[in-house]
Design a protein that fits this description.
The complex is a heterodimer of chains A (557) and B (319). The longest helix of chain A is centred in the first third of the chain and has 36 residues. Chain A has 557 residues and is mainly alpha-helical. Chain A is 66% helix and 0% strand. A 5-stranded mixed sheet of chain B has the order 3-2-1-5-8. In chain B, strands 4-10-9 form a 3-stranded mixed sheet. Chain B is of the alpha+beta class and 319 residues long. The chains are: A mainly alpha (557), B alpha+beta (319). At the A-B interface, helix 3, helix 7, helix 8, helix 9 and helix 10 of A face helix 1, helix 2, strand 7 and strand 9 of B.
């Protein structure tokens, strides 16, 4: 039986010239470096999308504001949504997946390392292509710049009579490019998980994070090609005289909505499942307890994945599908609340009776539980079709999905950064700055998005660049905008924390959190080959077994 | 422009049958969700306070509990039952609203979404107007619901008057229907709720619900041809491109791209609600519509100040 070396190795202090560094990173096929680049890409685009959000909130802080005009505002929300979903959320899925899955499985790398690098560069260049629209859009036609069709790009607004010029093409081509990267990345992850598990690592012993990544990757393979197909059809419409979505020539705008949401709703689960995985790793470690009900958690994951592929038309309750279809999609949407509820209860069960340590990763995870509960319940409300007829496309929906995607996804992203930064870099992030980051962000986020529910209930639609006074929306919008300030400060502290800790953070050692999954059995940062010696895997918590030979997990599972 | 004269368009201040049905269902839904939220939040706070590490022995791991079938079955079955109840209530209201039997003499209105204004056609009354939907009040003894057919000529729009009903999309090549039954006279606010391009934000709707007996008077006035005066601006209006897009019924102006101007001055606002319909705003609008509503499809006609004044004199005669 191999043992874990508990040697505190400091990070590599040797400074290398920039050319060498660049060479190492650009040409790398190492899953850890690719993972870190994905996460870095997500952080940079997160900052950009955050600035766009701040500008929009500034514009909406008072009625009749003229900070930006309608075209600029419409570009802002289009780019904000597209960026957050495709160039923050997706790289986050593949970044964490890339870095952690091989380590957690005790593998040397992913199944197809070169394809992996190719996927990353496709994603990055897809994002750059989208942003090049700011320069290239007006350059060619003198019409438009960045796309202004919304992240959902509803036809026929995307047809050439309504969006001439090339801005919409940048949206299509940028996402097509990154989409191929995502599909290849997902196939790679599935292949890795199915074939590269180390001896003893059966499916039933995989960390929950890996299970959730597996389900997310399966959803990518199911959903993303549908968007790709829709986008190719749209390109045909725009340049080859096809009429798939062109209503004036007999095409169907509703068809685009089906294509888009058949991708778009599973996409939400693609984004949220991996961070559920993050929560499922962090909550047990900081509660000092094994995850409560592992088999049920796996079953709930699979249920969410498959039910999640059958709820898409709940984005379309207002298009006139008729009572039977509306009822059907209400049923499938409400059904998904059951496995999601199971997850929340099982996390709660994990914390129950534990010795909970509220370090920064756990703070973010705990706030996630509250916020995801709220976002989940408003999600159930939106499945109540008649209520959805009222608040669909209003600020209630905006508040709802920000509770899920910021309150859920971004909070757990932050939790994951604080948790695995020591493994990736060999240094701890500063705990005091982390706490400040947490409190500023949690307060600001809940001010902004909490109050915006009420704007929607008072009839304020989304995607409007201005509004008139007298509807009862003024105070709500001002407060929501002020909530941006603490959030921005919080993110600034994270940036400072990362830069400072990279240089002179406390050395982390192999296993700073006293955790139980395989990634903590190697050095921080891990060597390129990951493991010198693999611990024996006889249970879901191989390191627990090592640390507690008197009472190992495999006796109980 | 502001809307201080209108009630707040809250979904919890319904004045129409379908909106009332939705409100009642919403209270049930909110009550159920509030109870779930309260219970789970209480449990979470309890866990956070009770099981902090600072309240635990330092050097020992807590007992490891791997799961419990009884508890897990409980928190699967209970939510399932709640979901079933909520679904049944939802389905009932869906059918109640979508399959609602309307009287045969319900007022029929065709609502057409344009980039960025609304056209309202009353096929049985021979009326065409814009941006202000006029309806009769409905009373238990004499129900007057309105059946709305929703169309769009360009891109997808969505028709939403929160106090009257939830929204239904107006989709080109895909006509939809919805209905409202206002039970109280007054003016209600709504706006386009599906992103439709540059001026999506200024595609506003006013619904004027007339007290008993007054709708007929309004309809009669609208049905009449324009009471045009022979203002000097009339010649300019007819010699300029105005007539290509606008209709003034009873004249040679028969354009349909822009709002019907036959009874322009009976409307409270200009540019689909972007400004009050005053002489001063008419002047600003004619000088450069994009100044009031950036991106609007109506071009500036490059008229001189004198010509604009003359055209305004003509327009204000369209009562």
């Amino acid at each position: 039986v191999a043992t874990v070396e508990v040697v505190t190795t400091g990070p590599d202090e040797v400074r290398r010239p920039l050319g060498v560094l660049l060479h190492e990173w650009v040409l790398t096929v190492d899953h850890k470096r690719i993972g870190i680049m994905y996460v870095g890409m997500a952080l940079v685009f997160f900052a950009v999308a955050g600035l766009q959000a701040a500008l929009m909130r500034w514009q909406l802080s008072v009625p009749g504001n003229t900070l930006v005009g309608p075209e600029t505002f419409n570009r802002l929300f289009t780019m904000h949504g597209t960026t957050m979903v495709f160039f923050v959320g997706m790289p986050l899925v593949f970044g964490t997946g890339n870095f952690l899955v091989p380590l957690m499985l005790g593998a040397r790398d992913v199944a197809f390392p070169r394809l992996n690098a190719f996927s990353f560069w496709l994603s990055l260049f897809g994002g750059l292509l989208l942003y090049f629209s700011y320069i290239g859009g007006p350059g060619l036609y003198g019409a438009g710049s960045a796309p202004a069709v919304g992240w959902f790009a509803y036809a026929p607004l995307t047809e050439r009579p309504f969006t001439p010029g090339t801005s919409t093409d940048y949206w299509i081509l940028g996402l097509l490019t990154s989409g191929f990267g995502s599909i290849a990345g997902a196939i790679n992850l599935i292949a890795t998980i199915v074939t590269m598990r180390c001896p003893g690592m059966t499916f039933g012993r995989m960390p929950l994070f890996v299970w959730l990544l597996l389900m997310a990757a399966v959803e990518v393979v199911i959903a993303l090609p549908v968007l790709t197909a829709g986008q190719v059809m749209l390109l045909f419409d725009r340049y080859l005289g096809a009429h798939f979505f062109d209503a004036l020539a007999g095409g169907s705008p509703v068809l685009w909505q089906h294509f888009f949401w058949f991708f778009g709703h599973p996409e939400v689960y693609i984004l949220i499942l991996p961070v559920f995985g993050i929560a499922s790793e962090i909550i047990p470690v900081f509660s000092r307890k094994v995850i409560f009900g592992y088999p049920v958690m796996v079953a709930a994951t699979i249920a969410i994945g498959f039910i999640g592929a059958s709820v898409w038309a709940h984005h379309m309750f207002t298009v006139g599908m008729g009572a039977p279809l509306n009822s059907l999609f209400a049923a499938s949407t409400m059904a998904i609340a059951v496995p999601t509820g199971i997850k929340i209860f099982n996390w709660l069960g994990t914390m129950w009776g534990g010795h909970i340590v509220f370090a920064t990763p756990m703070l973010f995870s705990t706030a996630f539980l509250f916020q995801f509960l709220a976002g989940g319940l408003t999600g159930v409300m939106l499945a109540v079709v008649p209520f959805d007829w009222q608040v669909s496309d209003s600020y209630f929906v905006v508040a709802h999905f920000h509770y899920v995607l910021i309150g859920g996804l971004v909070f757990l992203f932050f939790a994951g950064i604080y948790y695995w930064f020591p493994k990736a870099t060999g240094r701890m992030l500063d705990e005091r700055l982390g706490r400040w980051h947490f409190w500023l962000f949690v307060v600001g986020f809940n001010i902004t998005m909490g109050i915006l529910h009420f704007a929607g209930l008072l009839g304020m639609p989304r995607r409007i660049y201005t509004y008139q006074t007298g509807h009862g929306w003024d105070t709500i919008n001002l407060v929501a905008s002020l909530g941006v300030i603490p959030q921005a400060l919080g993110v600034l502290l994270l940036a400072i924390n990362i830069v400072r800790s990279l240089r002179r953070g406390t050395p982390a050692g192999d296993d700073p959190w006293d955790a139980w999954t395989l990634e903590w059995a190697t050095t921080s940062p891990p060597p390129e080959y990951n493991f010198e010696v693999l611990p024996l895997v006889r249970s879901r918590r191989p390191l627990w077994d090592l640390k507690h030979p008197d009472d190992p997990d495999w006796r109980h599972e | 422009m502001n809307a201080v004269d209108l009630p707040i368009p809250s979904v919890f201040a319904p004045v129409s049958t379908p909106a009332l049905l939705i409100r009642d269902l919403s209270w049930l839904m909110l009550a159920i969700c509030a109870v779930i939220f309260a219970v789970v939040t209480y449990l979470l706070i309890h866990v956070i306070v009770r099981f902090r590490a600072s309240r635990a022995p330092v050097d020992r791991e807590p007992p490891q509990v791997y799961g419990s079938h009884a508890i897990e079955v409980a928190w699967t079955v209970i939510p399932l039952l709640i979901v079933v109840v909520l679904f049944l209530a939802t389905a009932r209201t869906i059918f109640e609203i979508e399959r609602h039997p309307l009287p045969a003499d319900a007022l029929r209105v065709t609502v057409v979404g344009h980039q960025w204004w609304w056209e309202f056609r009353y096929p049985d009354l021979g009326i065409v107007t814009a941006n202000e939907l006029h309806l009769p009040v409905s009373e238990p003894a004499a129900r007057r619901p309105a059946l709305l057919r929703l169309e769009a000529v360009d891109v997808v729009h969505s028709f939403w008057i929160p106090q009257l009903n939830g929204k239904t999309d107006a989709i080109p090549n895909h006509p939809n229907r919805t209905w409202v039954e206002p039970l109280r006279a007054g003016t209600y606010y709504g706006q386009c709720a599906e992103y439709c391009g540059t001026q999506h934000a200024n595609m506003l709707i006013r619904v004027v619900v007339h007290p008993r007996g007054q709708f007929e008077a309004w309809a009669a006035a609208q049905r009449a041809h324009a009471a045009e005066g022979a203002a000097p601006g009339r010649a300019i209006f007819f010699a300029t491109a105005c007539v290509n897009c606008h209709t003034v019924r009873g004249t040679a102006a028969t354009g349909t791209f822009g709002p019907d101007l036959t009874h322009l001055m009976s409307r409270a606002t200009l540019g689909a609600g972007v400004a009050a319909n005053t002489r001063e705003n008419l002047r600003r609008w004619l000088r450069d519509p994009a100044h009031l509503k950036p991106g609007v499809l109506m071009p500036a006609m490059n008229l001189s100040d004198e010509e604009i004044d003359a055209v305004i004199t003509y327009l204000v005669s369209l009562k």
